[in-house]
């Protein structure tokens, strides 16, 4: 029974992008309204180890799925983000924090070219608390992100009425505010 299975629980630094990532992309969706606040450009990276039963994007659990991340795609993302009506970038997967080579490179370029004019959201199967105890690259990516939707998808806590997340254990976290306070601060526009 799928309901009885649970996602994987890695120890800190057990899974590393340097060992797992193939730097491949499952999908890129510019100008969408569903992956966070406002109009967004969404990058779906390939590869995830959490194996949550009921995962919304099972094919992207495979690190070899999709196509390579290229300079051409990155340039296209930057052009799309430059549109005035686009609020920002969203990273999804797969698992962005197991594809830090791609995600850090792109987020750094966004900060260099747009500063904080565009925001960056990321989904992760890791919780915030797990990420801050994990590898340096995960912490580096976390510091580049404004909003983190954290935690495994748990079928037992599935709730389709929640904003931007599939199960009640997941949180929408304001990362800079959380880092400044030393305790988790939720996204200020959270309704439910
Ligand atoms: S963390 Fe997300 S992408 Fe990974 S298995 Fe779970 S639901 Fe799927």
UniProtKB/TrEMBL annotation:
Q: Does the keyword Iron apply?
A: yes
Enzyme class, broadest EC rank: oxidoreductase
Which keywords does UniProt give here? Answer: 4Fe-4S, Iron, Iron-sulfur, Metal-binding, Oxidoreductase, S-adenosyl-L-methionine
* UniProt-listed Enzyme Commission number(s): 1.97.1.-
Q: Which residues form the signal peptide?
A: none
Q: Which SUPFAM superfamilies match?
A: Radical SAM enzymes (SSF102114)
Cofactor(s) named in the record: [4Fe-4S] cluster
Entry keyword Iron-sulfur: yes
- Molecular function in Gene Ontology: 4 iron, 4 sulfur cluster binding; [formate-C-acetyltransferase]-activating enzyme activity; metal ion binding; ribonucleoside-diphosphate reductase activity, thioredoxin disulfide as acceptor
Q: What does this protein do?
A: Activation of anaerobic ribonucleoside-triphosphate reductase under anaerobic conditions by generation of an organic free radical, using S-adenosylmethionine and reduced flavodoxin as cosubstrates to produce 5'-deoxy-adenosine.
The UniProt similarity line reads: Belongs to the organic radical-activating enzymes family.
Q: What is the protein name for this chain?
A: Anaerobic ribonucleoside-triphosphate reductase-activating protein
Classification lineage: Bacteria, Bacillati, Bacillota, Bacilli, Lactobacillales
